[in-house]
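Retry 2 of 3 after timeout on previous attempt. Resubmitting structure tokens to design endpoint.
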């Protein structure tokens, strides 16, 4: 059933079925996003939300003051995830619904995903009216990701599978392709002829926030670098679309950029763990990294020789997601820096050098800035964007299976080194800065 809803075209009736409705992810992110969608749009008029849980629950056990507005759209069903009969019962219930399509959202631990997919497929809940909305991580390495993809594709076609990368749904990330493709001042200098290096940073001031079990199986490399950082890298390096609003080309061009990336061995890989992490996860022997810095480079002739430094960490001095592009320094001028800020305060900043007023010949660095919030007001949350796009059937904000595998290929040698304890895991105090832990090489 086609449900493309551009312009004023109405969305077809939809049922969103959430596996793991009582979990932390659903309560903190998914349900508030759904409540915001239903408050600010007409989507709620055509949306049913079914929460699935192993325990017997009432809607009031799940909804709170922020999400109480979902009551009319919301029901909770108890299900034994391991029982094939339960999925047949779920199918019978869905067939009674007037919805023209069903989206299964997986807010469950990674190990539970594939068994659920297999039971959905075996129960016949996999024709063209069904879609999967999957949270990362997508595997633990290249081989496990390949197995997960192959097993999923036994039951569901590519166009039914939506793998979420919330950073791709941020307004600034969506606008990177438009910004670079529609502004000649940047499009003409977007290559190694004018750019010296790029740094992409995801810093968090929080720790693992009660998600120790998940993080012990994941770590910073799998959690952030394999997905968010490499996807942002691909956005920055991909070839501009001839039509900047032809988002159907974005996945293909991101993939082409990812396939040309490789680890830059000449620049050091750094990994660390913040003091106190072992106590938080109750594992005194933990070797899980909470900080990673590494560099990649591209074989694309336009980007050869440009190091792209990827940095991420928890319990750092600030919350920041930013792409920093350093332009080359000429004989007559200082180097300029372009900052594309994903969060917080999404926006664009260009550092320029000007002459200071007065009798002396001194230079001063000033910034030209644009803030999305200041200009447009409040922006949709990334969870809101991915849900709406999944309902509309727009796939450009989601990672394809080929992109997932290409990302793992870039990082496999790093992961193999981590397993062998290389490089050394360094302890760092909470509140450290990314610059202190990984100075420019």
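Retry 2 succeeded. Sequence:
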């Amino acid at each position: 059933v086609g449900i493309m809803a551009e312009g004023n075209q109405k969305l077809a009736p939809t049922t969103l079925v959430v596996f793991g409705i009582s979990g932390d992810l659903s309560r903190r992110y998914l349900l508030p996003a759904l409540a915001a969608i239903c408050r600010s749009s007409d989507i709620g008029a055509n949306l049913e939300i079914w929460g699935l849980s192993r325990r017997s629950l009432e809607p009031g056990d799940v909804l709170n003051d922020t999400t109480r507005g979902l009551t009319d759209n919301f029901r909770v069903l108890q299900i034994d995830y391991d029982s094939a009969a339960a999925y047949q019962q779920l199918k019978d219930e869905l067939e009674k619904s007037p919805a023209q399509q069903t989206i299964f959202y997986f807010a469950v631990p990674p190990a539970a995903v594939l068994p659920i997919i297999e039971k959905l497929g075996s129960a016949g809940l996999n024709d063209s009216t069904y879609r999967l909305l999957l949270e990362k991580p997508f595997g633990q390495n290249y081989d496990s990701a390949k197995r997960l993809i192959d097993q999923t594709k036994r039951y569901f076609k590519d166009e039914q599978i939506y793998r979420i990368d919330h950073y791709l749904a941020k307004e600034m990330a969506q606008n990177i392709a438009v910004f670079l493709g529609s502004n000649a001042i940047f499009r003409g200098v977007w290559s190694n002829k004018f750019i010296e290096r790029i740094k992409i940073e995801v810093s968090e001031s929080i720790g693992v926030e009660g998600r120790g079990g998940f993080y012990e199986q994941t770590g910073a490399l799998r959690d952030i670098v394999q997905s968010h950082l490499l996807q942002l890298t691909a956005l920055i390096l991909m070839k501009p679309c001839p039509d900047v609003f032809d988002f159907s080309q974005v996945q293909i061009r991101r993939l082409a950029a990812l396939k040309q990336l490789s680890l830059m061995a000449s620049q050091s890989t750094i990994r660390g763990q913040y003091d106190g992490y072992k106590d938080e996860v109750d594992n005194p022997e933990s070797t899980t990294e909470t900080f990673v810095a590494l560099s990649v480079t591209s074989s694309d002739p336009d980007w050869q020789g440009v190091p792209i430094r990827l940095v991420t960490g928890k319990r750092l001095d600030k919350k920041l997601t930013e792409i920093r592009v350093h332009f080359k320094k000429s004989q007559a001028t200082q180097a300029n820096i372009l900052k594309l800020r994903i969060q917080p305060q999404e926006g664009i900043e260009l550092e320029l050098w000007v002459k200071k007023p007065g009798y002396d010949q001194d230079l001063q660095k000033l910034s030209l800035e644009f803030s999305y919030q200041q200009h447009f007001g409040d922006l949709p949350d990334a969870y809101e964007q991915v849900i709406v796009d999944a309902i509309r059937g727009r796939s450009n904000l989601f990672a394809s299976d080929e992109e997932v595998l290409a990302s793992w290929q870039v990082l496999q040698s790093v992961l193999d080194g981590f397993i062998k304890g290389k490089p050394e895991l360094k302890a760092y105090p909470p509140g450290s800065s990314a610059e202190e832990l990984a100075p420019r090489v």
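Attempt log closed. Residues 1-8 have pLDDT under 50 and may be disordered.
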